[in-house]
Amino acid sequence: KYGRHGKSQYLLPKSTKLGSQLMKKLFSLMIASFLLMSCADVPIVQHSSYFSISSFLNEEIKQHQKLKTRLEKEVIRDEVKESKRIESPSWDQELKPFFESDIDKPAWHLAYECDTVQTDSLLQIVYVAKDEKAPVRRMQIDYLHQQIQKIEIQFEKLNPWFSLKRKLIYQHLLGYHIEGEQHMVLSDPSRFAINVKFIEFIP
What we know:
The protein is an alpha+beta fold. Helices cover 25% and strands 41% of the residues. A hairpin with a 6-residue loop joins strand 4 and strand 5 (136-144). The N and C termini lie far apart (87 Å). Residues 1-19 and 31-47 have low confidence and may be disordered.
């Protein structure tokens, strides 16, 4: 159709308008349903809210890398001693036993009792395992002026064929110590100790 001035004034029929509106509504409902289904598919992860030694160590590693920290490392296994100096440490590997001792995992939700002791500027937080399956039996974190100074861990992993016991101590900016014993069926127990001192790079 054309108006008085010759310009097109084509108008959609009412039925076409209603159909267009209906399609828009159906499209909106489909989008909303898709979003609801997507949200329903996202798993809800419940965290334990315990101290995360992994997060702490990752921050320590950043600091060591910035300071270009080197290691003086002594390893003793069944009375055989080996000493070496490591100029460029692989931190994830060097600190692996500590990362393996992280209790802040959904699997250990409610597995620990927590106690705190405050004396002047020193704060101690102690976690003790209630769950017999939890490998970290005890963890103690010592704070001085709100800064972590030392972490002590008792770690035990047991099954019918293998047992591993470790005592781990990490000291902020100083070093760490690991000692323990592992025993496999039909073999003698093997004792080990690792002493590491952090050496700050001096240009």
